[in-house]
Amino acid sequence: MYGMLLEAIQYYIKIEYGEELWHEILRVSDCRHTVFNTHQIYPDSLALELGQACAKVTGGSYDKFVSYFGKCFIRFTSKFGYDATVRATGRYFTEFLESVDNIHHQFSFTYPKMKSPSMYLTEIDENGCVLVYRSSRPGYTKYLMGVLEQCAQDFFQLKLNIKILEEASSANGSKKQVLVNFRLDFENKSYMLNKQKKEIDQLHLAKLAPFSVDLIITLFPFALLIDRNLQIIAVGENYATIWNPEEPCINKAVGQYFRLRRPKGIALTWKNIKNLQAVVFEMECNRGHELFDVREDGKDAEGQGGNYLLLKGQMKFVQEINSIVFLCSPIINDIGELISQSLCLNDLNSHGLSREMVLAGWQHNSKLQTMFDHAEQNTEDLENSHELLDQWKKRSDDLLYSMIPKAVADRLRSGDSALDTCETFSSVSILFCELVGLQSKTVKETMEMVSTMNEVFSTFDKLMDKFNVYKVETVGQIYMAACGAPERTENHPEVMVKVAFSMLQDSRSIKSPSGASVEIKIGVHSGPAVAGIVGIKVPRYCFFGDTINTASRMQSTAEPGKIQISSDTMKLLPTGQFKTISRGEVNIKGKGNMRTYWLLEE
After folding, report:
1. Could you give phi then psi for residue 211, rounded to 5 degrees?
2. What is the torsional sign of CA 481, 485, 488, 490?
3. Measured on CA atoms in the order 74, 75, 77, 80, is the torsion positive or negative?
4. pLDDT digits 0-9 by tens, 71-83
5. pTM, entire model
């Protein structure tokens, strides 16, 4: 019903704030949907994003808007007659709260993709109760508070005060769940008085002679008796007709033979069963032919397939024997399925309509729900596959962008050839940096040297990201970077000099294998260059031209711990911003004598 929630938000925002403001909210939230449909699937975060946009556009509170969405949902669904289901649930608000899971279960046939939360009550008194809320959707705590407040007001004429006692999150396999304890304060005296009256009536009935639990097992031939340790202490008499005789289940863990199918998202624990006595339970029985795997947290593993018998009924706590009895009956679709389960009509409960429904060939809701569950599982598997695909795509993008600049890679993806990426740049700054003093004679020394180089170059990589400078490559102990290409930058000499200073400073904090500080020498030169993609199997973004050769000579003729720049770079630097000193004429291989400069640290 998530699509209906979005419909409600759109409907009431338009009414109370106007059409123009609603379009502004859509724009701010970057929502691509302009119309919402009840049965369409939308991202779980969309309603929250709309709440953030509402708060931003109107200047209101985000929490108040999310709570307001909950009230809108109740008002909107009441227009379509869904309020009748709530009103028919019970005479008291507390009874409604106890039956919320059952209501969601019924709605799941109309909305198979619905991700309903689970709720149960504890500490019920004359002034209210404690509600435990569990959901796979994070961020909807305030929304639920709005829903409850509107339900109490519209259907039970109650003023409800809600306080969050505790909020936590947990993981159920790959799924994350939100767990919240609410204190609900409202007038609950009438419910408590009715409950006391029922207890008094039960005391009068207690004058009848007590009877054995064996009678319950006879009346419910598929019943199950469970103790506090979740051990099976008794089973209905009809299990003998379908059970594997070589695998007795008495005094064994219930999770080995029975799998909880509903309520969803909870562990099969004593506490959960006691708190959810008002909820309809569904359990799959493997009839002792194949054990379910039971995890340490009490949850059974989600099995796939198998000819399991589906049981549906209610859990009831029997105080006299401190045990829980599962009063259930098998859910059989038709005569054919009855035979496949090794059952006969006489095996079904003598009370109720089980036999008549099988003879009539009615489709049971529970079997229909099983089909929905399988479809939902397939959808979830597909979603997980898409998430995995997105993860691998991100990894491939990261790998691609580590070899090729993002702007250039995107051009290749759009259909440009590798040759089309080659460009001429009138002026770029090229930096070469070499680690000096690292020697290796033994295998151990070589490994230590590689580890040091990795630490130094990883530090330099962070600097490239910080200053938006492109790392071209590393060859041995030499690190090459470029500024002004592929993204054209006017102040590339200034940026590259700042990068050089940072490299010099950061390298001093890293120790070499001998314990001394790592020493580097840096050379920078500026001039024209050509850059583009080279290679097919392992493409790389490379730079070509005399500027690269000259920058390499600036590094090779530099001294450890110093930065040498060419006169061309010196001319492009802002006047007075950096301290430099002339080194004089330096003989550069292939270039002859060139005037170079030392950059001085302040």
Report:
1. -130, 160
2. positive
3. positive
4. 999 998 888 888 8
5. 0.52
